[in-house]
Q: What sequence folds into this?
């Protein structure tokens, strides 16, 4: 965990990243001797525990709604995982982003997202009181299982989180030099050296429900984040999430990012490489990216460093690595954004919130009843919409 200042609530700057402490109940699982924690957490045995002790709802599409045992927030925190652990035993072969999910599964996935986001907006209507976010981070199979900061579960999963803004206002300021806070803003490779072509490439995508925002519209004043990212307002607000065309545009953002990322790191790997064969927008990649001097010069800069700096080269994510979010801005509008994803950072840090998880069963148990009440409420909405059936655990009944 990065170092933090010792600011008190009265001296905390108005707009700065925050670090909060979130207590959790220690997980009663023993990792077999000689096995790394992250290797065990990717096992079917661990996924069985996740479903049996924390599972809320499952459906025939293998989508599992569950309580986060190691959560970001005890206000509201849940996830949907595409649980392929029994169908695909090789963790490196599991779907790790939306573009790899079967269409029938994605339709159900999108409807579940819509129901949960609608619940969060209804339950927390005031943007001055609650920070709402939903989204995913890629877990690419090119990320070695033994790498530091590897995700604890190598399967595609979405996060749905609410932070109490009073808690954030009273929190410590986070270390601004924390590398996990810099990958998506003005410090990132994309933003520092080729921000113009990055935005131009996105501007060529065909949006009708999403409209590009100015930076001051998308930023959360309390934290000052996100920083320097292309962002889009969802025209029509939460009701637009009931429109299937919104989710198609949401996927366009991801596909555009994947094309940009692949095209760039293909150039880093191989000088003057052609358009990647699996590009979604090959003509735009060729005309906008591969004919842009800033784009190509930055690829050369990174390539030259990789040749002489083994540690730097080893840290590169050669395949698309991203965080994609839907969150509510200070005006109460829903915003979509996407960022690079560096090793070790959390999805909340894209919005300037660093979470320090601390084992403290007593503190967690004080927050648990209200948290579970909300999780069971949203589960009931999903059941009513025929999006799954309830799971019984030691903490709640199936119905």
A:
């Amino acid at each position: 965990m990065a170092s933090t200042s010792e600011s008190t609530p009265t001296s905390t700057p108005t707009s700065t990243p925050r670090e909060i402490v979130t207590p959790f109940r220690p997980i009663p699982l023993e990792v077999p001797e000689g096995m790394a924690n992250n290797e065990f957490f990717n096992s079917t045995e661990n996924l069985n525990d996740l479903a049996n002790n924390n599972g809320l709802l499952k459906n025939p599409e293998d989508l599992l709604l569950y309580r986060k045992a190691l959560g970001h927030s005890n206000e509201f925190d849940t996830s949907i995982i595409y649980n392929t652990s029994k169908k695909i035993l090789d963790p490196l072969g599991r779907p790790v982003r939306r573009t790899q999910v079967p269409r029938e599964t994605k339709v159900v996935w999108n409807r579940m997202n819509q129901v949960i986001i609608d619940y969060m907006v209804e339950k927390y209507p005031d943007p001055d009181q609650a920070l709402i976010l939903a989204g995913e981070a890629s877990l690419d199979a090119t990320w070695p299982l033994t790498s530091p900061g590897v995700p604890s579960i190598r399967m595609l999963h979405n996060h749905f989180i609410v932070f109490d803004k009073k808690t954030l206002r009273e929190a410590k300021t986070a270390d601004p030099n924390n590398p996990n806070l810099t990958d998506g803003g003005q410090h990132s490779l994309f933003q520092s050296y080729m921000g113009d072509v990055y935005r131009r490439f996105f501007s060529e995508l065909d949006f009708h429900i999403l409209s590009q925002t100015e930076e001051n519209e998308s930023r959360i004043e309390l934290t000052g984040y996100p920083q320097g990212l292309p962002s889009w307002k969802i025209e029509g607000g939460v009701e637009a999430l009931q429109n299937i065309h919104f989710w198609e545009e949401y996927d366009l953002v991801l596909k555009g990012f994947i094309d940009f990322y692949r095209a760039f790191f293909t150039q880093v790997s191989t000088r003057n490489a052609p358009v990647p064969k699996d590009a979604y927008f090959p003509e735009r990649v060729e005309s906008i990216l591969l004919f842009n001097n800033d784009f190509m010069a930055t690829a050369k800069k990174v390539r030259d460093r990789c040749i002489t700096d083994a540690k730097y080269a080893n840290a590169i994510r050669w395949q698309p690595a991203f965080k994609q979010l839907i969150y509510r801005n200070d005006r109460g509008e829903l915003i979509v954004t996407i960022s690079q994803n560096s090793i070790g950072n959390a999805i909340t840090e894209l919005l300037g919130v660093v979470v320090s998880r601390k084992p403290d069963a007593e503190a967690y148990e004080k927050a648990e009843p209200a948290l579970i009440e909300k999780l069971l409420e949203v589960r009931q909405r999903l059941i009513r919409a025929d999006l799954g059936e309830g799971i019984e655990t030691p903490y709640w009944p199936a119905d």
Q: What stands out?
A: Residues 1-11 have pLDDT under 50 and may be disordered. The longest strand covers residues 130-137. The chain is about 35% helix and 20% strand. The two ends are 39 Å apart (CA to CA).
